[in-house]
Amino acid sequence: MGSDQLSSDVRDRLQERREGQTPSGTLVASADEAYVGDTITLRGLNLPAEAELDVVWQTVEGKWGVLQANEVVGPQYRPREERVLTVTTDADGKFEREWKIPEDYGGEHTIELRQSADDETALAETTIAITPWFELDRTEAPLGEFFTITGYGIGPNVLENNYQVAWDNGTAGFMTGVMNRGTATAQIRAAGPVGNHELQVWRNYRGVPFLQNNTQSPFGEVAGGRQYAWSVEVTEPETPPETMWIDSLFDEAPLSTHLPDPDRETAAELEVTPQSGQPGSDIVITGRNFPAGETVDLVWHTHEGHRVKDIPISPEPQPGVLPTVEADDEGRFQLEVTAPRDRGATRPITAEIGGESVAVAGFMLQPEITSMSPTSGPSGTEIEIELSGIGWPIYENAYYFLYDNKPLGYICGLEAKINKTVLRAAGEPGYHFIDVYPSLFDVRDDEPDFELKPHLSYIDNHPVRPLPGLHMAFEITE
Questions:
Q1: Do 372 and 236 have their domain in common?
Q2: What are the tens digits of pLDDT across the range 255-299?
Q3: What is the pLDDT averaged over residues 136-143?
């Protein structure tokens, strides 16, 4: 089911709830359109005298539709309502109250007056439309740092669900507010040369800027009259930019959907601590309720297969990665191992007795920059980059490379346990930046188009689980 149809279904369901209702009062808002954060005035008339009434905000809740924590269907929305105010009418059945527009999706919202939030009969109602808008945290940043753009009131309408960010007239990627009630955050590198640069937000459901957004679009300007483009300044840094680093990682748990069932049901248990980390992390594996004195083979699994070649992707055992242990007299064992370099996402770990798995656990393997060499040289230098922990699921297997905020291409997390690529240093002498962001390899819904484009709002709006960005700097010498 496409995003257009989903939006239509939401509207139909909201309409059905109001059919047959004849509001007995009057509710008026001081504005027909507003931005998130604006304060409007609500006025009620012809209402019960000296009555306490609930003001109910009609909206939606958004999420990514994802099958088996792998295949991305697209944005999906369902109706949501929220009591936002309680008002009291005077002896004439009137009230007047100021109210701040909450962080929520763009488009039209119905505001209802009810005797109580549980009573679905509206005494009065009105509508107000939220207009998307964007703000920039600063207009000056040292070379190598980031500008942060925050968008409010994005979507759910397919036409207002995909915004593109351009740096010096080159599209760096997209931002969307699918998961975060229409709010999205994107970071853009302060890339050289030192001096003035241009940063702009565009809009188009096809995933690339429609250049008539602000001149001849039937849907109006990108931000309805607020600022959508900024002149920014990149300044000399006080210290050289960091050569390579990765965003802060979250504590995660493996996804049970990606764990195989044991061959034989027993009371045996496996526990992995911590449950997530990068290759090279120290892991403690604890076993309980195994037969006393039994030899237990611990088996690490990778995922193998190929979508393009139509080879099913499945967990495959990797003998020899983890050791064989022996349960003590209480059927317990504990040992420390190192997470190997492998394809990322959920890595199953099984405990086998006599060739049969009797317990299953997992470890969420997160991305790392394995190596980058060299880190400086003249223009044309070949830069060899190796990444590990890049996952196999669709929502994370196509990490996308930007060079000085210009899209270059992607790597595939299914191709190898260590993803290797070679880039050529280009540009004037000085520091240049390679940023690697999550993207969506494939999306079942065609509109809006999120496929194979750097997802700049991965920080707060990526499907399934939060993924880090990976960042590198290369110095071109004289």
A1: yes
A2: 999 999 999 999 999 999 999 999 999 999 999 999 999 999 999
A3: 98
Bridge pairing between strands 470-476 and 356-365: unpaired
CB–CB of 200/165 below 8 Å? yes
Distance in angstroms (rounded) separating the CA atoms of residues 343 and 397 = 9
What are the pLDDT digits (tens) for 99-128? 999 999 999 999 999 997 677 789 999 999
Report how far residue 174's alpha carbon sits from residue 208's, in angstroms, rounded to the nearest whole number: 8
Please tell me whether residues 9 and 123 are part of one structural domain: yes
The C-alpha atoms of residue 337 and residue 276 are separated, in whole angstroms, by 13
**Last residue of one domain, picked from the residues 346, 365, 384:** 365
Number of folded domains that form the chain? 3
Contacts by residues 317-322 (CB-CB < 8 Å, ≥ 24 positions apart): 317/350, 318/342, 322/285, 322/298, 322/349
Whether pLDDT at 15 is above 60? no
Question: What are the distances in angstroms from CA 309 to CA 137, 306, 312, 323, 399?
Answer: 45, 5, 9, 33, 20
Which residues constitute the domain of residue 145? 133-248+367-476
Same domain, yes or no, for 186 and 282? Answer: no
Let me know whether 201 and 104 are in one domain.
Answer: no
- Last-in-domain residue among 106, 130, 154: 130
Report d(CA 406, CA 35) in Å as an integer.
31
pTM of the full structure:
0.91
Long-range contacts of 270-276 (CB under 8 A, 24+ apart): 270/349, 270/350, 270/351, 270/359, 270/360, 270/361, 271/361, 272/349, 272/361, 272/362, 272/363, 275/251, 275/362, 275/363, 275/364, 276/249, 276/250, 276/251, 276/252, 276/363, 276/364, 276/365, 276/366
Question: CA–CA separation, 430 vs 428, rounded Å?
Answer: 6
Q: What is the CATH number of the domain that holds 325?
A: 2.60.40.1930
Q: List the one residue out of 251, 369, 348, 254 whose CA is nearest residue 300.
A: 348
